[in-house]
């Protein structure tokens, strides 16, 4: 069992089995469709085909075309329909085929879904989930590999999630569907089948806003989320071989994010390196860095480091150059350790 799996919450003694991240998403959707008749699932090709990544395979056959159905190629219509359904009492789960395609639905997300509770004085809410594959690592180029989470973390009224393990993918998605707020649920596509782990058979959820400590350490806090987490583990292994004790934290949830766990870790280690694959300018990790220097400045023994994607459109074939990767992460950690 890997360090990541060991840090997953216990199953309570119940039965578990090993699945990958895409299977965890499918199971979560199946169980929520079965549990609550208000849950409906829709998007481009999610019905008979099961989605471009097969996350919804078999769901239309099980629950029918009135619960799981295809839509036109119009992200604005998909999001707008989800808002209307949510306001009228349903629990819509809308899939946007790639995070890169969310642009046409942006106004519906930030002007309607995020604000309906506030503009109505609490008379209406939009309990809805927008699922979307995100990030690079599959040589999809600049229209199929972007990491646009910062747009949505900047929008009050939205919750934003990005898991990295099957356990979290299932538990966070089930919690998002059951919640009372609109949730943007990013799925790191390069981990769909690469990330495998033990997941309980029994019903469970993972609370939004709680980070996971993947491994404990005392010399440096290495913090990330989503698709970069395996690279953080590899970097921690490399540093550990040189005698460096690295604490690895997976944020899991960006809005809300677990400030207390991050600050407690940094206060213990005195050093922090933050990792994500989104472009550096306007990166969500800039908010984490600011919070650390604002609330834990006296504990720092080195400047907060950040490893991110470059401020360029995502390249078609240079994934290994663009993505942070273990080598770039290790270099940033060494710089912090030698400061």
From TrEMBL:
Membrane-spanning intervals of the chain: none
Residue ranges occupied by any Transketolase-like pyrimidine-binding domain in the UniProt entry: 19-194
Cofactor(s) this protein cannot do without: thiamine diphosphate
Gene3D superfamilies listed in its UniProt record: 3.40.50.920, 3.40.50.970
Keyword Transcription found: no
Top-rank lineage group of the source organism: Bacteria
EC number of this enzyme: 1.2.4.4
Gene Ontology MF terms in the entry: branched-chain 2-oxo acid dehydrogenase activity
A single BP term in Gene Ontology: response to nutrient
UniProt KW keywords: Oxidoreductase, Pyruvate
Complex and partners: Heterotetramer of two alpha and two beta chains. Directly associated with ODBA in the E1 complex.
The protein, known as: 3-methyl-2-oxobutanoate dehydrogenase (2-methylpropanoyl-transferring)
High-level lineage: Bacteria, Thermotogati, Deinococcota, Deinococci, Deinococcales
